[in-house]
Prior knowledge:
By secondary structure, the protein is of the alpha/beta class. 46% of the residues lie in helices and 15% in strands. The protein contains five helices and seven strands, in the order αβαβαβαβββαβ. Helix 4 (112-119) crosses helix 5.
Amino acid sequence: MKRDDAVALAQQAILRSNRRLIDAVEQRRVGQASSTSLPVSALPIIAVTSATGWECYAIVEELVQSRRFRVRALYRTPGTQAAARLEALFAKTEAEQPGLLTLQSGVDLNSAETLERAFDGCAGVVLYNTANTSSAGRISNHGRDAVGGRAVVMRQVMAALEALRATPSVQQVITLI
């Protein structure tokens, strides 16, 4: 199978999975007014970590297209090709629906303090933890270090738990590992 065909199939599977996640989040919004009647500023904010990665970028894109949430796309490294893709989505969204998408770079998943600031005011969080490590926006091990990868994931989990405990506005968390 050609690489482009494999990537296209994987992206389709991710989008199907993300649709289920978004439907689950929407079902939990019991008792809230229909978001189509709300101004953008009144929509709940959903933070999505690792927003430049394939999976989380697709989630950001789906949430933005639903127009039922304001989306805070969180990522670590600006200036990468993946960040440029996210910035293009931001520009398109701003032209069509200002305020629906915000970008926040410099978010370190290992820092409870950084995550707490990033989650502030959010009603929900899509939290993506990964064993991948990177330097300057380039993934260095793709999770191939089983022992070191567990430690990486646990540092992220502990930082996220601390940040979530300190952020009472967050009512829903979807975790992807």
